[in-house]
Amino acid sequence: MTMRKLSSFVFLTAIATPYAQADAWYGSAKFNSARQNLSSALLTSPRVTERVEAPDSTKTFTGSYSVGYAFTDGWRAEGEYTRSGNSTFDSFWSPFNANVNRLEVNSQRLMVNGYKNIPLTHWLSFYGMAGVGVAQIDAEGYQSNDTRRFASHRQYNFTYSVGLGLDAKVNDRITFGTGWRYVDMGRIETGYNTFTNRINARDEQLKGKLREQNVFFETRVSF
């Protein structure tokens, strides 16, 4: 089952839940300005001695869509699908200092999020949030140039997030929001090298831990 089919199933299941459970159903769209970071980067070649330069963070823009319900006491629960985004990370390793190792990552997420809103005024509220779910991650890359590829590898990782933000209620149906969140998508890795190395072995991979911080803007509509 693909990530998009699974997200559709979750949203339809949420809509089918009895109305008595919630004070108001809503749909939401977010625009995310995300900065992904690769920590604990590793090149699994027995011929390298140490990392010369670690991968930097990469900025990407994605959208996400949610269906949820809001309780009368300020709690909200939702299912959220975040569209795929691409990131690249370059690292250099001695004794082959001139050879770039590029990791190319495509990630998308399906999360279940919980929110707690605390009113500040009759129209403005502060909230904290946390979420758990799964990330679909495709990782591949190359060494030195694009003809020396690491094989593509797809994995599904447990993912969690925490964040905070502000909501501004425009009227009974429409709310605008902005917030920040941290997302941990776990360890990722490419497939093995498809190119021929010095000893004609398939023993090299790129690995690391994928994390994300994003600032988002949201429009939420009750129905």
TrEMBL record:
The answer on whether this UniProt entry bears the keyword DNA damage reads no
Where is the secretion signal located?
Answer: 1-22
User: Which key words tag this protein in UniProt?
Assistant: Signal
What the entry lists under Pfam families is as follows: OMP_b-brl (PF13505)
Give start and end of each Outer membrane protein beta-barrel domain.
9-194
What is the name listed in the Swiss-Prot or TrEMBL entry for this protein? Porin family protein
